[in-house]
Amino acid sequence: MGQGRSASSPQVILMGLDSAGKSTLLAHMLTGQVMETSPTIGFNVGMLELDKKTSLTVWDVGGQKSMRPNWKYYLDDCKALVFVVDSSDRARMQEAQKALRRVLSDENLREVPLMVLANKKDLPNSMTIREVSTQLDLPSYSDRRWEIQACSALRGLGLQQAFMSVNKLIKKS
C-alpha cells in the first residue's frame, strides 16, 4: 500500500463478456494495429505508455463464462477496472450487467474506480452511452467513481482518451 507510485505502473484490469473486444482493444493500444484475436484463455498483459511519465499495466482477462469465476484472482492490486461492453449487442446487456455487478461486489474493488467502455461504436446499430449506462444500471453505483466512454477498438477511436481518463480516475482515488 505505502509504496511510491513512480516505481511501478498502476494495475488496470480489463474485463467484460467474451467478444466485447478487450484483446483487440489492448492490442490496438499496444501496437497501433488491428490484430486477429482468438478467445482469451487466461489473460494477456501489456504495459501501456500514456506519455513519458505515465504508464499503466493492463491485464486483459478472458471473458468466457467458464473464465468468469477466475476474475476474482486478478483483483488484488487493481487500481481501476475497465469494463468493456459490445454496444451493438443488446441481447447480452443483461448478462454484462450481472457480470459487472458480481465483480464490483468483490471486497478488493471497494474503493476502485470504474471505466465502462462502450466498444464497437463504429457499428451502425450500436447503443448510445446513455442506453449502455441505463442497461448496465451504472447510476445505481452512486458510491463509486465511474465514467463511461464510447470507443472502437477496431478503429482505435477513443482509446487514448479513455485510458487518459482512467489514469485521472486512479490519481483521484
Automatic annotation (TrEMBL):
<keyword id="KW-0547">Nucleotide-binding</keyword>
<keyword id="KW-0460">Magnesium</keyword>
<dbReference type="GO" id="GO:0005525">
    <property type="term" value="F:GTP binding"/>
</dbReference>
<comment type="similarity">
    <text>Belongs to the small GTPase superfamily. Arf family.</text>
</comment>
<feature type="binding site">
    <location>
        <begin position="16"/>
        <end position="23"/>
    </location>
    <ligand>
        <name>GTP</name>
    </ligand>
</feature>
<dbReference type="GO" id="GO:0003924">
    <property type="term" value="F:GTPase activity"/>
</dbReference>
<keyword id="KW-0519">Myristate</keyword>
<feature type="binding site">
    <location>
        <position position="40"/>
    </location>
    <ligand>
        <name>Mg(2+)</name>
    </ligand>
</feature>
<keyword id="KW-0342">GTP-binding</keyword>
<dbReference type="InterPro" id="IPR027417">
    <property type="entry name" value="P-loop_NTPase"/>
</dbReference>
<keyword id="KW-0479">Metal-binding</keyword>
<protein>
    <recommendedName>
        <fullName>ADP-ribosylation factor-like protein 11</fullName>
    </recommendedName>
</protein>
<feature type="binding site">
    <location>
        <position position="23"/>
    </location>
    <ligand>
        <name>Mg(2+)</name>
    </ligand>
</feature>
<dbReference type="InterPro" id="IPR006689">
    <property type="entry name" value="Small_GTPase_ARF/SAR"/>
</dbReference>
<dbReference type="InterPro" id="IPR024156">
    <property type="entry name" value="Small_GTPase_ARF"/>
</dbReference>
<dbReference type="Pfam" id="PF00025">
    <property type="entry name" value="Arf"/>
</dbReference>
<dbReference type="GO" id="GO:0046872">
    <property type="term" value="F:metal ion binding"/>
</dbReference>
<feature type="binding site">
    <location>
        <begin position="119"/>
        <end position="122"/>
    </location>
    <ligand>
        <name>GTP</name>
    </ligand>
</feature>
<dbReference type="InterPro" id="IPR005225">
    <property type="entry name" value="Small_GTP-bd"/>
</dbReference>
<comment type="function">
    <text>May play a role in apoptosis. May act as a tumor suppressor.</text>
</comment>
<feature type="binding site">
    <location>
        <position position="63"/>
    </location>
    <ligand>
        <name>GTP</name>
    </ligand>
</feature>
<keyword id="KW-0449">Lipoprotein</keyword>
